[in-house]
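Figure S4 source data
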Amino acid sequence: MKIRNLLVSGFSLCVLGAIPQPAEAQFFKKISNMLETVDKALGGDASKSNTNTEKTANDAPQTGITVNGIHQATLYDGKTTMKCPVVTSNTKVISVDVSPSIYVNMASYSDGVAFVKVDKKCFFVDTLGNKVLDYNYGLPFMREYPRFYQGVCPAKKGMARNMSLIDKTGKVVMELPVYDCTNFVDGVAAGFISVQKGYSKVTKVVYFNTKGEPVYNNLIEEVKFGNLETPRPLCEGLAAHYSYSKQLYGFRDENGSLVIAPSYSKVQNFNDGLAAVQTASGKWGYIDKTGKMVIEAKFSSEPGPFSEGYAVVEKRDGSKCYIDKQGNIAFDGLRDASYFHNGKAFVRLNNSARYSLALIDKNFKVVSEFHTNLNSLPLEDAVSYSGDDILISNCFVTDMGDMILGAERLQSHFSDGLTYCVVWQEGGKSICGCTNRKGELVFIFKESEF
């Protein structure tokens, strides 16, 4: 929109009733000529320049522009049209005998395939939507769905005593001596084994690689009680490790050597050189990679991870603030906040302004504001990152918060170039399937007609 169009529309509200009709026509003709000259002086299209108009609480949302130096993001607000994934002529259809939006559950891709559960039927599909393997094995209790890693996946057939490793054809590659085991993480899985001890049997935890070979023999220990925990990933060279005998967490390296002895009730992964840990007192603090407590355990609520020099912590009154690596408050008075990523962080400002959701930079200055506040969802749950992808609530956004692609339900970040989503249509109907980054549904699940 050119400057003359913007200003003439504004002038019309002020002078329409004050100028007689013939004079009004002459007046606007002069104004139009004057603003034509202004447009040319500014290079033609003034919409390419930052707008510096004042906004009020009653203004209609203006998106895709800059107001007073702050970007107005096009995050979905229930009124703005969301760019949703669409069916194309190349979309593959997978027929199912149930309502997909209710009964289809799908995990993220790993090793080129993803686990799908349709009511009581389970199978793996590739990135084209071709069924690779019917999964006729038991599902783990209270753990993530089975996942392939380097061509193998742990599985247990019916009433079989022990677990096996299967390949993508369903062939048993190797029998395992464990009666329960996790998925592989960084090439290592954990399992429970039953061994004879005197006149009775005890449970021990063991670790093995994708060839079924034992690893981390120094971490084998007797299990007092508790569920099997999936190994934590290596983060900055260390992985959180749970000791079943001590029922405490420590940290190990990639070889399984304990670098930080199990001493904490709960721990987060290392990030930005520090890890949040919960001590026996129930309070949280931060340790470095030597195990030294560098920020004292004084936080009653679990804090956020450090990222780009700052972490989000909660005060006793429920407000949030950013602290630096010395434990000093760097920015205070927030209703909610997310961790920094590529120099920016999503926050909810602690005021009654309409634009309560904003994006700030490392100087804690607002650089973008949003016409929605997602009040029902904490930012730690609403905002997540994966590489350069930013997912906020149900929508992928740019680094300034503008919508790229969204759906009523998004499964997760892209893996192998796809993510599962549910798109609602008019009349209460829905489309469920996997979309690529272009917003093209590669394949969908559709209830069979008969």
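Figure S5 source data
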Amino acid sequence: MKKAAAVGVAAALSLAAAGCGSSGGSDKSTVTLWMYPVISDQAKNQAFWGKVEKDFEAKNAGIDVKVDLQPWEGRQEKVTTALVSKKGFDLVVLGPDQIPQYAQQGTIEPVDDVIAPAKGSYLPNSLSALTVGGKLYGVPIYQTITAPIYNKKLFAEAGVTKVPETLAELKEAAPKLAAKKVAVLDYPGKPEVSLNQSFYPILWANGGSVFSADGKSVAFNGPEGVESLQFLLDLKAAGGLPENAASKGNDIEGGALAGGKTAMYHAATALQAVQFGTAIGAENVGIGLPLEGRKRVSFGIPGGLVLAKHSESKDAARKLAAYLASPEVAAELAAESGFFPARTDVTVPGQSEASKEFAKSLQYAFPGDTHPKARQVMGILAPHIQAALLGKEDAKTALDAAAKEADQLLGSGG
């Protein structure tokens, strides 16, 4: 059995030079899986995937599994290179925003058959997020979710007896906390922060979307988008955002939330809740449902096992994908990673109370507006939102300017 190892793309392509999934002259099928550090502790990550290799191979004597532990950095470029060169992996873990472009290019295979025997056990949102053109292109093995985290003590000291559950209530609470020199919302306006954890949840809650229904233009500058950005500007005017909101990140440790300068972050992860508890005491941390506007929406994505079209061991790769998505392995992965299972028939051993609170938001999970150019559009929009927060543009001007650039991108075909 080959051991799990972190390798660069050059090494991975070299290892696969004889053909991805080849038998190497033996009767065994080889399946190469590119896996990423969803388990943040490196030692635990290596141990988990080493055990996966060993256990799967013990049950499938004719299959040799190789798990290449890849870094998050440069993932998109490496995956694209591997698919174009038809070398490197049989299976890879991708998110909903990455899959459409590869499905469009025809470099990955549908995997509906893998989940068919237990389709009813998967979270519907996890499956729909990985579906393109009516076909499933990723087998969900975990699900992420975000939810509001807040400082109970700060709200109480400001006389806010009911912690905000809606955007309207958040805005109403802003002046009361501002009087205590506390910003109600720890908004991270730094362009490097994913809009999925800053502006988009507010846009979605107000019923807006990033793209038009046909995907040929953007829609974030519609009435819902303007309302959402104006909401942030109104909060800022009321002292409801940090003074450096336009340039701050969403780090908890060493940040305004941990320092008692802000009261709530609306799109936090479970790990961030743990970091928050370490900073202010777990007993002072509250976890809520997604803030409601016209609806409740929480950013959360499944990690999907994607099968390369060029794989020479597709049957073996499908068996491995089914094994990794099984309740037994999904439970262990959730326990080690802090993420959540993508299935409803999985019990996570030792799940914390905080994780159980986050799990309540899974029903509201939304992977974002998937589009082959979603990440590029985000890169265009973020600086304009920052400009509005800096007072350089009003809400409509900022969004219209971003939309003009984004529509040019969408129409360019590049």
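The chain has two domains: 5-144+301-354, 147-299+373-412. Residues 42-59 form the longest helix (18 residues).
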